[in-house]
Specification:
InterPro entries: COMM, COMMD10. The protein is an alpha+beta fold and 202 residues long. It has helices at 12-23, 26-42, 52-62, 66-86, 90-99, 105-128, 181-199; strands at 135-150, 153-168, 171-180.
């Protein structure tokens, strides 16, 4: 999981968006953010959760101008997207929102509560939208023990072979990994970290 130091960077636009968030009515902000979350679950690539007509109504309801609305949308989408990519748990998210991004406690709690309820669905949706052209279809594995001799001494070396079947627009292909004990251990640790991060979102 990403640490609080590199989880998100406080750009000028994000900081301006956070300042706007802090000024909004809590109930109105909750409704606004809930709509953004639902839109992201339907289409992770969408950066326009509201129609033009709805945006005009938001300007009046939230008492902000067009530029402030754009900054508000930017802040909400960036925070949620980065939390999704970082597999961050609600407690850590709340801490970063308050101490790094300087959201008020009320606004941080709104973010955190929505995240706690919808994190799994967001992560699954973003996972389906792979940034890579190739996707893993199937995997097979084999563990083997190789024997080597050096100065009349025999050494047994464990090896693991992972064969992955990949699919892409052009067709299917295979990728084979030949890993020694140290490499396999590192791969296992990475997968364990990912699983722990996913479990923390439950």
């Amino acid at each position: 999981m990403a640490s609080s130091k590199n989880w998100i960077s406080l750009s000028t636009n994000l900081q301006a968006g956070v300042e706007i968030v802090n000024k909004l009515d809590n109930r109105k902000f909750h409704l606004f953010l809930n709509r953004v979350v639902k839109d992201m679950m339907q289409n992770p690539d969408s950066h326009k959760p509201f129609t033009d007509e709805e945006e005009e109504k938001l300007l009046d309801s939230l008492e902000i101008n067009r530029n402030e609305l754009n900054l508000l949308l930017h802040a909400a989408i960036v925070i949620l997207a980065q939390a999704t990519y970082s597999l961050i748990n609600p407690e850590k998210l709340n801490d970063i929102l308050m101490n790094t991004l300087k959201l008020t406690e009320e606004k941080a709690n709104i973010f955190t509560n929505l995240w706690a309820n919808d994190a799994k669905n967001l992560i699954l949706k973003f996972k389906q939208k792979s940034v890579y052209t190739r996707k893993l279809q199937d995997i097979s594995w084999l563990v083997n023990i190789e024997m080597s001799s050096d100065n009349n001494r025999q050494t047994f070396i464990p090896k693991a072979i992972l064969q992955m079947k990949l699919s892409e627009d052009k067709g299917a292909s295979d990728l084979t990994l030949d890993l020694n004990e140290n490499q396999l251990s590192k791969l296992y640790n990475v997968l364990e970290d990912i699983q722990v991060a996913l479990d923390a979102l439950v």
